[in-house]
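For concreteness, we quote verbatim a single protein encoded this way:
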Amino acid sequence: MYPELSKNLVADKVLPTGLSLLLLAVCLTPVKAMPPQSIIISQGQTAVDWVNQGLQLIQQGNLQQAIAAFRQASQLDPQLAPAQYNLGLALRQAGQLQASADAFYQATQVDPNFALAFANLGAALLEGNNLQQARDYLSRALELDPKLGVANYNLGLVLARQGEFDRAIAVFKQAMQLSPKAPEPAYHLGLVYLQTGNLDEAKKAFQKAIQISPKYPEAHYNLGSIELNRGNLDKALELFRKAAETNSNYANAYYGAGLVFMRQKHYKDAEQVLQYAKDLYVTQGNTQWAANAEQLLQRSRNSNP
């Protein structure tokens, strides 16, 4: 048996800078027609009608109305698992993590074989920093469907957070095979290789992520960090510039460029990009890295004749 959800399901968590958000399954599909005896009529609309209306509202960008439609569907037919599941996805998109996890949990209770619901429940728990519960539900998802790429990916994130790097590497590789068009497994595989000091394999993994998604600023940035670590300053600067080009608000890219310029003794350029990085960090509420950028900025000014 898998544990009941704790009352304080979602804990505060600060994502390490440079990490992408969790890859949640977002494939909303119309619900198949249900047997007549399972449908409750309310003002002419069935629970299935409400779910499909919610899906249409999602496609139109009406998120709050979609949430209301999915709630109505789940109230009309509490045994309609897709209603709870799509409600969970919509709530997650709205940033309501606790409510999202509750909806996914209800979907698993209605349908104990709903692998995607277990996978998304695990992902929500992971984002809430409930690692052991996340691992339990993701493992259950993979018991039901071993080829579920999103479950492998999120389990890899859990294992990496728990320091089980060898297993995380294996699971991320499996996720890459099962979800070949998703760049996130390759990117996080690269992060694990960085943590274990395997720069060559990290570089290959980041390059793979960029091959899948050329506009992946975090991957460009981490490649740049590897080149900077190896003293390849021009190459590092090129990669930091690519990171900034793909996302002009990615502060780490400017910070990395500042490091390169300081090593090259191009202090005026360093001051310019470090000031920009600091301003971005402040705007984004990242006080620690804003302070780091300020310290580096002062070093550059003191070094500049």
Observations:
- The radius of gyration is 23 Å.
